[in-house]
Specification:
single chain, 149 residues, mainly alpha, 4 helices, 2 strands, 70% helix
Length: 149
């Protein structure tokens, strides 16, 4: 056994109420900036909703990482060999377009929700739902596409 002290575990505990949840957003950013890893997030009422969205975001991020790797392979399989450059150019343009429209859609959703008197977390939750609807729409559009030639 080494003489090093065991690493302490850090829990981010969020109380109920929109102000406490908004404060947790700022605290989480400060902890990340200072290099302090959060091991678990717990909360009650609105805090539990925030914690569940955080956990869902981590799972969704891990899922999209695999998708990002596999989509290039599928693009290569679907593209005609003589037009591969054109197809990858279009692929890159669409990627840049989505990198702009996603944050714009997020910002508009939270801005409109805030203008109607919704809390910060409610606006963020609505933005997550909006982007989830966009992902579902993409799945529906691409469902008939196969890589069988």
């Amino acid at each position: 056994m080494s003489g090093a002290a065991p690493r302490r575990r850090v829990a981010l505990v969020i109380g109920s109420g929109s102000v406490k949840c908004a404060a947790a957003l700022g605290l989480q950013r400060v902890l990340a900036r200072e290099g302090i890893a959060v091991d678990m997030v717990v909360g009650c009422s609105g805090g539990s909703i925030y914690a569940s969205f955080l956990a869902a975001g981590i799972a969704i991020g891990a899922g999209f990482a695999g998708l990002h790797v596999s989509d290039r392979v599928l693009m290569y399989r679907l593209s005609p060999p003589d037009r591969l450059g054109e197809f990858y150019g279009l692929y890159g343009m669409v990627g840049r377009f989505s990198a702009i429209t996603g944050p714009v859609l997020w910002g508009l959703t939270t801005r409109i929700a805030g203008a109607r008197g919704a809390s910060i977390l409610t606006g963020e939750a609505l933005a997550i739902v909006m982007l989830l609807l966009m992902v579902i729409a993409g799945m529906v559009i691409l469902r008939p596409v196969t890589d069988v030639r």
